[in-house]
Amino acid sequence: MIQTIDLCKEYDGFKAVDNLNLQVEKGDIYGFLGPNGAGKTTTIMMLLGIIPPTSGKIYLLGEELKEGNIDVKRRIGVVSENQYFYKEMTAQEYLEFFAELYEVPNAQKRIDTLMEAVGLQGDKNKKLGAYSKGMQQKLAFVRALLHDPELLILDEPVANLDPTSIKQIRDLIEEENRAGRTVFISSHLLSEVEKLCKKVAIINKGKLLAEDTMDNIKRKLSDAMHLQVELDREATELQPVLQSFPWVRSVSIENNRLEIALSTDRDYRLELSKTIFEKGFFILSMTLKEMSLEEAFITITQHNISLLTRGEAQQ
Ligand SMILES: Nc1ncnc2c1ncn2[C@@H]1O[C@H](COP(=O)(O)OP(=O)(O)OP(=O)(O)O)[C@@H](O)[C@H]1O
After folding, report:
1. Model ipTM?
2. How close are the terminal C-alpha atoms of the chain, in Å?
3. Most buried among 44, 159, 174, 230, using CB within 10 Å?
């Protein structure tokens, strides 16, 4: 659906996007993540043909993106961070205008269905000048979906929205994805990306650090498996025993409860259980503390850059 090959964008010798190779498959909900200045907007502008790459290639829907290739753009829906609206038009008029432009069949039915889905049906005769930022954002979604695009490209799609609206948009994205649309989302809101995306790419300083499933990314970003273990009795004597293993990152023991962090190069839970048992203890419970993407990746630090790239180096 989207493929970039060695995509580069330079500004006066500065590499805003540096040899980027992305692969978005049909049916993906694909998250495109990175800190401020990472190169996300520059990449999207190139995908949309708004700015030309310095070098490299872009394939959209199987076709190479070239200047004047209008056909492929008709098959894409876009919601960008900044929307420009004609303030004097009502939402209904605005959507009719686009429906005509894109020759949408049964346009009014499609407009009503989508406006209902984002909770704007009651406001469709309001002028756009009276729309709040959040309402404008939702309207941009409706416009992007109006012509039934195969691919949706969303740049910070929920930036101006309150929690209820975020939920409406998330449900809509999921529904449209189930209906066969591929979705590419660039966002800072990691918790949103986590809820929606099946696959994620992380970029920093124009370079791709990782492109993988959400689970694998989380595993890479968290350099330890955090466990809470409950034993049958007081266990402070286990502290030096457990600490002596290279795969135990840290351990703290309070009465019969252990908080333990294990290395993630493989699953050490069986070794841990055996060791505890051999020392004469019984495990009453063992709970894995799942780390959210947000926790694991609040900012891209030097440390987690090395975690993300370490896996690639070993492969
Ligand atoms: N027109 C331009 N001229 C020079 N440098 C630019 C230009 N546009 C972007 N850059 C630089 O390219 C880098 C990537 O910017 P870009 O806007 O793509 O990042 P981003 O990941 O979208 O960031 P944000 O999350 O803050 O929107 C930044 O260092 C930025 O200063």
Report:
1. 0.96
2. 26
3. 44
